[in-house]
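## retry 2 of 3
previous attempt timed out at serialization; input unchanged, resubmitting
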Amino acid sequence: DLGTYNTEVIIKEGKLQLNTNHNAKYYQEENTLVADAKSFKSISRVSSSSDKGVSNGFSINDGNFTNTKTGKKTNYDEKLATEYFDYNIYPYVLSTLPLKLGGENYVLPFVDINHITNKVTTDEAIVLETKSDQFTSPLTGQHMCWKVTVVHKNTKKYIFYYIDKENRRIRKIEYAHKD
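## retry succeeded, writing output
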């Protein structure tokens, strides 16, 4: 059982706030990300997680990464917040792109922070292909979607986003690793 994953997006006063909550049997993670509503560039991020009873948390703001459990601060290059999208925000940027069959080779640079190791990592999400597909929800029925294949350049992680053609909602996300 993968548990439940809830997402809430709030746009207010020129800011986009993304709240996520992932609950599984041995794991829980909550994120609150704030970005500029027009550029999607990061303003702040607060996250907390527990894995098998170990609690971790962090906060990012003004070029500082603070582990909220230990209080340890790590400086990082503030340009990362203005030149890269937050890992959790880039799928929403992807959903706003003018998608079409075959697809463009869009490149979305993103930054992520591992709150366990305090390491800042950067990567690029590269759109490889866009196909027409369907997604059937048990609650809302059938939706015509763009199936967008993305690869993370450095980690070689493949992700398939099903983006509703009508309202641009992300209907489904699949992850795959290729050797």
